[in-house]
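Changelog note: in this version the structure field was regenerated for every chain. One regenerated record is shown below for reference.
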Amino acid sequence: MPPIPLLLSAGEASGDMYAARLATALKQRLDVAIFGMGGPHMRAAGVEIITDYSEVSVVGITEVLKRLPSLIRAMRRLVDEAARRHPPLAILTDFPGFHLRLARKLRPQGVRNVYYICPQFWAWRPWRVNLVRRRFAKALCIFPFEEKFYADAGVPVKFIGHPLVENVRPTMTRELFCRKCGLEQGKQIITLLPGSRRGEIAHHVPVLVEALGQIRQTLPGPPQIVIAVAPGLDIPSLEAQFPSEWHVRFVTENTYNALAAADLAIVSSGTATVETALLDKPMIVIYRLSPLTARLAKPLVRTKFFSMVNLIAGRAVVPELIQDDFTPHRLAAEVQKLLSVSEEANHRVEKMRLGLEEVRRLLGPPGAVERAADEIARLLHAAQSNAK
């Protein structure tokens, strides 16, 4: 018999990473031919990429309008390919604006949809959970409080734990990282994760540059700057925005080592905050949307906090500088509170680390991807049995 076709889709960098690991786990259990939307990680895992996620990866309401033709093309390719190959299951990874519509188009073809990495509808437009109930056969969630939210809405749901728990670890010591990057081990290091999308870089980097200029004047040293560059971003254009005399280090494919070596991380809100928490690094979370998108989005947000770390803990473990609060002056002041040589700064860092320890505990045990693959294998066997 030929391999069973499966559609697997991810629309951004973190989803590509999660989906790639799932693809590997599924291939260990089943004779499957996986195709869909993704990026470099899914390609490396042997997924046949029909459309690259770089065509659709956008953030914000107004930004989507600019990329609408690309979104429509990507949707059409996936739907047409599913009609040609007839996969029994489509596994859709987060990215709800696109995947909710894709699920609606796949159902008439007889495809059963599985949500892998459930969208955070408890925080943002919660009524959309009803679309998940209608269009998905199963939802796999990665945060413990999500299971009740989805179950209460009538969604068949399972908490699998967070896929990053067993995956986030450095591969070198601070000493080795410093030696490889030409850094002084004895001087403070600030690692920046400015975002994985072009829009995030455009909104974040100018503020970061101005803030770092102030930080360099107020902290002794001054601190060394490392920037972890997400896949697909243009490093030369990033480098051009930072003064050459700062000797900023730009690293790729080395984010965990850059975080592990840091005294402090400044992190764009998203999956990176969870990775930073798993590495036990003090952080400041930043985020900024376009003014119009922010105004349109504000009435739709249902949570007190913005960053995943604080949402998981249910309290303010790390400082958040979001939208109008994300200014050079505010960021420089928060850095000063955490990196100054003082008893108060040490107390702040220790308190934050205790909160990060709590977050790590709440993320669940290792094995999330394996549990997801087992659940999908059961669904596939059930679908095949029903078809006979």
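Spot check on this record: Residues 51 and 278 are 32 Å apart (CA to CA). The mean pLDDT is 91.
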